[in-house]
Design a protein that fits this description.
CATH architecture of the largest domain: Beta Barrel
Structural class: alpha+beta
Strand content: over 45%
Number of domains: 2
Number of helices: 4
CATH class of the largest domain: Mainly Beta
Helix content: 10-25%
Radius of gyration: 23 Å
Largest sheet: 8 strands, antiparallel, barrel
CATH topology of the largest domain: Porin
Distance between the termini: 27 Å
Strand order of the largest sheet: 1-5-6-9-10-13-14-15
Number of strands: 15
Shape: elongated
Length: 281
């Protein structure tokens, strides 16, 4: 949807931009008002993540606990649904300072044939992931929503602008967990905790459009309630989770806690709106 909207905006804006670039500065001021450096950027991207292995800790409904050590995660960024993201950036009148609302849709698959150390009652055991779980993944989204502060570095040019940023937000993954031999499964969107994000990238500017490549580092600690229900839409799932929290109900399947730490390399493009002369290349 973001890519389709971006294509429509760019297609309808190309001709007016070219005509506006040919105006004298005095005519542009008379038509649009005083020149400023403020601009808004709307863009979309794809890329590839690498997620570190992490320990999974389960608190079961009967009071028992289970820890699975060093679970490896696959991103599979180009399998359906692909890795993608969308963002809106607002640069201030200072030109170098900006704020960004960023949505990232990643994925994290466990590896069924991986052998892991399992700690619970008694001595640690070595088992395959497939011996413990029928499903263990966050594949309709290791989703992250963040609000970021951006800073353009001073050694760029009018056409090439490097930048860095730092942000925080929330994780809203689609959790799919089902233990081997158990009928109930958790299959729903959830709020699982905060996320921290660090970015650094390079923007290539042409009239009204920008292309960018970027490195992202994210840390997302999860505390996922295992409700043992099949969800539907994200809004409905999150509303259900809120109601359970409001009522003080414990999840029927217990809790899962882990931390997903990822390196991500992305590339994308977007459209810039604002004063034509101030937002030029």
């Amino acid at each position: 949807m973001a890519l389709a909207a971006l294509a429509a905006v760019c297609a309808t804006s190309t001709l007016p931009v070219i005509e506006a670039k040919q105006e004298a500065p005095e005519a542009a001021v008379a038509r649009t008002g005083p020149l400023t450096d403020r601009e808004t950027f709307i863009g979309a991207y794809t890329g590839a993540p690498y997620t570190y292995s992490s320990n999974l800790h389960f608190q079961r409904p009967d009071g028992s606990e289970l820890t699975i050590n060093d679970v490896a995660w696959d991103g599979k960024p180009f399998d359906d649904p692909i890795y993608y993201g969308a963002r809106v950036i607002r640069w201030t009148a200072m030109s170098r300072i900006g704020s960004m609302f960023d949505f990232t849709h990643g994925k994290a698959y466990s590896q069924p044939e991986q052998e892991v150390s399992v700690t619970g009652k008694g001595e640690p055991e070595t088992k395959k992931i497939s011996d413990i779980f029928h499903k263990l993944e966050f594949t309709h989204g290791h989703n992250m929503l963040t609000l970021n502060g951006l800073f353009r570095l001073p050694w760029g040019t009018s056409a090439i602008k490097p930048y860095v940023g730092l942000g925080a937000g929330i994780s809203v993954p689609h959790t799919e967990v089902q233990f081997r031999g158990e009928r109930g499964r958790t299959y729903e969107y959830q709020f699982t905790g905060p996320v921290l994000q660090v970015v650094g990238g390079l923007e290539l500017r042409v009239p009204r459009l920008s292309y960018f490549v970027e490195y992202k580092f994210t840390i997302a600690p999860y505390r996922a309630p295992l409700h043992l229900r099949d969800g539907s839409l994200a809004f409905a799932d999150l509303w259900h989770q809120f109601l359970r929290w409001w009522e003080g109900s414990e999840p029927a399947g217990g809790w899962l806690t882990t931390r997903l730490t990822s390196h991500q390399v992305i590339a994308g493009m977007g459209y810039r709106s604002g004063n034509v002369l101030a937002a030029g290349p």
